[in-house]
Amino acid sequence: MVQRHRYQYGPDPSQWGELFLPELPAGGKHKGVVVVIHGGYWRSRYGAELGEPLARDLAEHGMAAWNLEYRRAGNGGGWPGTFQDVLAGIDRLAGLAEPHALDLGKVVALGHSAGGHLAVWAAGRDRLAGLGPAEGGLLQSRGDGVRLTGVVSQSGVLNLAEAERLNLSDGAVSNLLGGPSSEFAGRHRMADPMAALPLDVPVLAVHAREDVDVPLSMSTTYVDASRSGPMPAELVMVRGDHFSLIDVGAEAYLTCRERARRLLG
């Protein structure tokens, strides 16, 4: 039987996460956690209800899952709120480890679409200070924060500069960051997972072959750019469309679940 526990990580109504836990034997411990980060092109009308079926399914298959909500553009998010929330939401797990017997030695993010962007971005949190702009100080997180040990990106928007050039979802990138890169070059760079390469954690860029919402180039350009690093990202193509990746009955999603399980070891 799956247990559910909801916790705030800040005072805003959107700053919360819900922990889905499988049953444990007496004295047992959950071997890692999967952080589920929903998509919706960072807009407020899409919320954590998109990630709930995935988190429940992961728990039903033996994995602890943290379904993370965050402020989006339109309800207090955007720059820098959305990014601050993702880091703070992941760090909230540190306070939940003891009461819920969580082993935080392995923390894997599973992010869909814009959530894939945020998941891969969060994996590069330690490189933020080296990206230059003074405004990057807005995103500094505690040195003892919870670090991701792997990411499964589900048709993630992993190349923000290209996404802006393509005007994906009618200007979603500029909407997230408060304006175009021509005006806010620093924050666009800070927000782009491409700028944090190379990473030292595994990133699996799972992309649906029939995806017409997020172009394949969002994954391929990221994977190509990672090849010179110590841990190149891996491209995994699956059958289905954009939403097959979050359909818990679809083969595309099952591939993502299995990849998350492998990353948990």
TrEMBL record:
Where the record annotates domain BD-FAE-like, the positions are: 29-221
Please indicate if the UniProt record lists Hydrolase as a keyword.
Answer: yes
Per its UniProt record, what Pfam families does this chain match? BD-FAE
The residue range of the signal peptide is none
Cross-referenced Gene3D superfamilies = alpha/beta hydrolase
UniProt-listed SUPFAM superfamilies: alpha/beta-Hydrolases
User: Keywords, A to Z?
Assistant: Hydrolase
Recorded protein name is Pimeloyl-ACP methyl ester carboxylesterase
What is the species listed in this Swiss-Prot or TrEMBL entry? Pseudarthrobacter enclensis
